[in-house]
Amino acid sequence: MNIVSTADLRRTYGEGETAVHALAGVTLSFPAAQFTAIMGPSGSGKSTLMHLLAGLDKPSSGSVVVDGQELAGLGDSGLTALRRDRLGFVFQAFNLVPVLTAEENIKLPLTLAGKQVDQAWFDKLVDTVGLRDRLTHRPSELSGGQQQRVAVARALVHRPAVLFADEPTGNLDSSSSEEVLGLLRQAVDEFDQTVIMVTHEAAAASVADRLVVLRDGVVVHDGAGQDAEGVLDLMKAVG
Ligand SMILES: Nc1ncnc2c1ncn2[C@@H]1O[C@H](COP(=O)(O)OP(=O)(O)OP(=O)(O)O)[C@@H](O)[C@H]1O
Description:
- This is ABC transporter ATP-binding protein.
- InterPro entries: AAA+_ATPase, ABC_transporter-like_ATP-bd, ABC_transporter-like_CS, ABC_transpr_LolD-like, MacB-like_ATP-bd, P-loop_NTPase.
- It comes from Solirubrobacter phytolaccae.
- One of its GO terms (cellular component) is plasma membrane.
- GO terms for molecular function: ATP binding; ATP hydrolysis activity; transmembrane transporter activity.
- This protein is globular.
- The protein contains eight helices and ten strands.
- Strands 6-7-8-3-9-10 form a six-stranded mixed beta sheet, sandwiched between helices.
- The relative contact order is 0.18.
- About 35% of the residues lie in helices and about 25% in strands.
- The chain has a single domain (about 1-239), classed as Rossmann fold, CATH 3.40.50.300.
- By secondary structure, it is α/β, with parallel strands linked by helices.
- It binds adenosine-5'-triphosphate.
- The site of adenosine-5'-triphosphate (ATP) has 11 residues, from strand 2 and helix 1.
C-alpha cells in the first residue's frame, strides 16, 4: 500500500519568462515501511517536493495523496489536522521548545491535539532513542545529538503515517548523525514506519532502502539504496 503518492506534480514560481519550474512533473509512490532518501543538487526541487507532500505548499498542478487523502480536497483546517495527526517532522534545526523538558517536548504533538499519551509506546520510544535519563532536561542541557533524538521521538509519538526528515543530520557530528540515522532505520524496521528524508549527505542516504534523485525539478533516478560510495558514484553519474 502506498502511504504517499504524487501524479505529475508541478510547482512553478513566478510567471512568464522569469518563471521557475521548481517541480516539472513528478510522479512518485512511497509504499508503507520504506525508507526513501531524496537527493539532488541545490535548487533541484527537494524542498519544494517535501513541502508539497506535507501540504505546506500548494502545487501549480498535479496531485498529492497522503494516507488516502487527496490534499487538494482538504481545506486549511483539514491540512492542519492531517499534519498534526498523521505526519511527523524532523528538521535540520531541532525545533524543540526551549522552556519544555525533553519529556514535554516529546509529548507535545499529543498535548497540542488534546490526546492521551500511550504510555507503553512512549516508554518504548524513550528507550529506543536512549533518553530515559534525560527526560527532565531542557534542550539547552542536551547535546545536539540528544536534541535530535528528542525530535525523532516527538515525530513518532503519535504514530504518524509518514515521517518527513529534512536534512536531519545537517547540524550533527558524524557519530550523532549515525545515531539519528540508526533510529530512523529502526523506526522503519521495527515499527513499520514510512520515512521520506531529504539529504545532501551520501552517508545519510546510504541507510535508506531507496534513493530518488531530482534534477531541475524532475526525477532523474529512482532505485534501490546504495552504500555511501555507490551514492556518490550515482550522484556523479546523474549530476
Ligand atoms: N518562494 C520561491 N520563489 C521563487 N523561486 C523559488 C521559491 N522557492 C524555491 N524557488 C526556486 O525553485 C527551485 C527549487 O528550489 P528548492 O528549494 O525546492 O530546491 P532544493 O533542491 O531544496 O535546494 P537546496 O538543496 O539548495 O535546499 C530553485 O530554483 C529555487 O530558486
